[in-house]
Every structure is written in structure tokens, then in C-alpha cells.
Design goal:
This protein has 17 helices and four strands. Strands 1-2 form a two-stranded antiparallel ribbon. Helices cover 44% and strands 2% of the residues. The protein is mainly alpha-helical.
């Protein structure tokens, strides 16, 4: 028993060096002595405890784990037990879409691309994981599941439309200077102004620190296979705002300003999805200038807001709502992602505009031009990781909302002529909406409820 207990630690040489009683450096692949003398290189792996015969490991088995010893059978492999690393899918719906797949395959697939062809598209069911988790080379490989055609994102055919007059968005900057009939002033209490300021600052801070994308950017937009250049450049470039050297804030601001000018000059030539990415990137740059670099006031930020509203108008012309949403049927996943991301970005832009207007001492007005747009949809829909998961959640959403979903204007003040049954119905609709919203929707409700009653 004693010999077998210490046999592994006493083996200091390969078989050839041990027979010759020569010193062995046990170099991976072949020790120096065996390489010089062209001797065969092998060693005897003795059992850790009695009961199994010794086995000889040759050259082909060396170097898999960076050493000549095989992985012990009871060792814990992180990739085969991803529950210790990655959280379970949101809303209790399994992210696996193939019931016949093995446990390891359904729990975590590191990459859906073929190992011999790295250009293959990745499976959208796992792209959220691959963007945030990179396995070490020394770990075991997880069996690769080929991508399913139904899960590959295709943004080429989007059936969208705009239920509002988007030209009113581009003219919003004129409202503090030129009165418009029917304008309603938003009298933000100091607490709400502070809430909006801190929430928007947190959105850009998590992006600057590389922790996550802002909540108006969908997870599919930041995957390596589908990230649009304006957005990918933005999320990389704003990292320079994290810890700028004292006195260098102006230089960093100039760098961001030049990139913003490039985006604004080129956005007309962009397609629908790239225009959305340009709109989001321009908003993130503007928020980084204000919240991270201390560009509190000045003509550049006011001009940036005017440009932002023009970008929002151009992106809105390509559609802010799915045709299927209007028909109360399930839309294409890709179309819904684009429409929801546009609406969320639009709402954040309006809140940021109110912060800048307050800073400049200007009045802010209720965005009546947005009346009819859907309110932010549920957390489970926004965070769904696969097409199948999203379709299941959307079917549940259609069952919960037999009529149209909640509109953003239903969070505004109730009309004075609204009947008591109508008021009760609206309250019930808002309560149903609140049951499933994410943190972004909760923030929107907090602002509108405290501001508009």
C-alpha cells in the first residue's frame, strides 16, 4: 500500500532514462536525452491505488493538458458543468432547442462554427454566452452542435412601419424656442430629475467599463457575428473615457466628437439595421461626453442633440413597429428586435434631452409625437436567447394581451373626459404590464408615474 501511495510522486524519469539510471528533464513530447539519442519516449503510469494495471503513455498522449499525465477521472471540468459559471436561462425557459442533444450540448455550446471552418455563422441560441465567456485552451472541448438554420439571425427582410409622424421628432429641438399648439410642459420634481440623471449615467458607465451594453442595445447587436460597425466601434472607443489622465479630457472629447461627425455624415447611406446602430452609437457618445467627460454645456452638445433627433427621425422612417404587432400576431424575431431596440433608444434620447434642457435652463415638453408607440415589452421577450424561447414567450404574451399591448401614452396623465370604467381598465392594463417589465420598463414607469400622475 505504501509503495502504491507514493509511486506517482517517486517517478522522476521516463522509461529509457529510468532504465539507464540517467537524469531526465521529462520535457513534454520527448525529454532532451531521448531526443539526442533518438530513443523512444514513454513512461509508466502507475495506479494511484491498487486494483488496475499500469499503462504506458506514448508521444500521442502527451501535451493534451500541457503535461504528460492524463486528466484524473474525478477532476472537475468547468465546461462540462457550466452551471458553476453561467446563470440559468431567464424566466425558467430552457435555452436548449434540441431535445435529443446531450446534457453538455444543451447546457452550453461554446461555438456553433465548424472547427475546420471558422467563418461559419454561429447559432443565435449561444451567441450571448460566447460573447462573454472564452474557455481556456487547456480545458476539455465541449461537443459542438451544428447551427440550426431557423436560429440564424437574418435582418434582410423586416416588415416594419411607423405609426407616428417621425418628422415631429426631428423638429423637437425647436419647442423651447417656438411655441407649438398643444404643448404640455413636463414639470420634473427635483427627485425625478436626479433619478433620470443617475440612471442615464449608469447606462453609459457600464458601457465605458466594458461590463455590458446599455439596456437599449439588444444582446444580438453586440455578438461578434452581427455587430454593426458603428456600434462595435463605439463600444470599443468609449473605453478611453474610463480613466483619462488629468487634463486629457479635452483630447478624449475631441476623439469622440470626430467619430460623431463621421457617423452623422455617413448615416444616410446606411441600411435599416446600420442606421439603428449609428443612432445608438451617437447617443452613447453624447452621454459619454456629458456624464464621463464633464462636457456639461456648450454649443457642441446642443448641436449633438439636434443631430440625434435627425438620426432618430431617419431611423424611424424605416419603421418603429412590426406590422404583425399592429395585427396582434407574432412577428419575425429579427423584426421585433429592431423595432424594440429603436423604441427603447428613442425613449432614452427623450430622457437625455430633458437632462440637457434642464442643464441649460430650458423647458421640457411631453413627447406627444410618440403617442401610439408600444411601451417597453417584457423582460423575457427582451432577454430571450433563442428563437424558440422567444416564440414561446411571445405566444404567452399574446394570450395575456388579447387586445393590443400597452402603449407609451397610457403611462401619461389620464384624459379628463375618460370615464371611470375607462380609468379602471387603464390601471389594470398598466398593472399587467408591470408584472413582466425589466429594469428599463420600471424606470420608465417611475418617471412617468411621478411626473404625469
Amino acid at each position: 500500500m505504501k509503495a502504491s501511495r507514493y509511486s506517482t510522486s517517486r517517478q522522476k524519469a521516463c522509461n529509457s532514462c529510468s532504465t539507464a539510471k540517467a537524469k531526465c528533464n521529462r520535457k513534454v513530447g520527448r525529454c532532451t536525452r531521448c531526443a539526442v539519442k533518438s530513443l523512444s519516449y514513454s513512461y509508466t503510469q502507475l495506479p494511484l491505488s491498487g486494483g488496475s494495471p499500469a499503462s504506458t503513455i506514448g508521444n500521442a498522449d502527451v501535451g493534451v493538458y500541457g503535461s504528460a499525465s492524463p486528466l484524473p477521472p474525478n477532476s472537475t471540468n468547468t465546461l462540462s458543468n457550466p452551471g458553476n459559471v453561467l446563470p440559468s436561462p431567464e424566466c425558467g425557459i430552457s435555452a436548449a432547442t434540441d431535445p435529443q442533444s446531450s446534457t453538455a450540448e444543451s447546457a452550453l455550446v461554446i461555438s456553433d462554427a465548424s472547427p475546420t471552418d471558422p467563418t461559419n455563422p454561429t447559432d443565435s441560441s449561444t451567441e450571448t454566452f460566447t460573447g462573454n465567456y472564452a474557455p481556456r485552451e487547456s480545458r476539455l472541448e465541449v461537443p459542438i452542435r451544428p447551427p440550426k438554420k431557423s436560429e440564424i439571425l437574418d435582418f434582410s427582410e423586416l416588415e416594419l412601419f411607423s405609426p407616428i409622424n417621425v418628422d415631429d421628432i426631428s423638429n423637437r429641438w425647436l419647442h423651447p424656442y417656438i411655441p407649438v399648439s398643444g404643448q404640455k410642459v413636463k414639470n420634473y420634481p427635483p427627485t425625478i430629475t436626479s433619478l433620470i440623471y443617475r440612471i442615464l449615467k449608469s447606462y453609459v458607465t457600464v458601457a465605458v467599463r466594458g461590463r455590458a451594453a446599455p439596456p437599449f442595445v439588444h444582446a444580438s447587436q453586440v455578438m461578434s457575428t452581427s455587430t454593426s460597425p458603428p456600434l462595435s466601434t463605439c463600444l470599443s472607443l468609449i473605453r478611453i473615457c474610463e480613466n483619462p489622465l488629468p487634463g486629457s479630457e479635452g483630447v478624449v472629447a475631441d476623439v469622440l466628437g470626430r467619430e460623431m461627425n463621421n457617423l452623422y455624415e455617413q448615416y444616410v447611406a446606411y441600411d435599416n439595421v446600420t442606421q439603428l446602430a449609428a443612432f445608438q452609437a451617437y447617443l452613447i457618445y453624447s452621454m459619454a461626453l456629458f456624464f464621463r467627460l464633464g462636457q456639461i454645456s456648450g454649443p457642441f452638445l446642443r448641436q449633438a442633440m439636434m443631430n440625434l433627433q435627425q438620426l432618430a427621425c431617419s431611423s424611424g422612417r424605416a419603421g418603429l413597429m412590426c406590422i404583425a404587432e399592429q395585427q396582434h400576431t407574432r412577428p419575425k424575431w429579427e423584426a421585433w428586435i429592431v423595432a424594440e431596440a429603436k423604441r427603447r433608444t428613442l425613449y432614452v434620447m427623450y430622457l437625455f434631452d430633458s437632462v440637457l434642457s434642464t442643464q441649460d435652463g430650458l423647458q421640457t415638453f411631453l413627447g406627444t409625437e410618440l403617442q401610439g408607440l408600444p411601451a417597453p415589452r417584457s423582460k423575457c421577450l427582451w432577454r430571450a436567447q433563442t428563437r424558440q424561447e422567444w416564440e414561446i414567450v411571445y405566444n404567452i404574451y399574446l394570450a395575456d394581451w388579447l387586445a393590443e399591448g400597452l402603449r407609451i401614452d397610457e403611462l401619461w396623465p389620464m384624459p379628463a373626459d375618460l370615464s371611470e370604467p375607462g380609468r379602471l381598465q387603464r390601471r389594470n392594463r398598466v398593472d399587467t404590464w408591470l408584472e413582466n417589465v425589466d429594469e428599463f420598463g420600471t424606470m420608465i414607469y417611475a418617471v412617468t408615474s411621478c411626473t404625469h400622475g
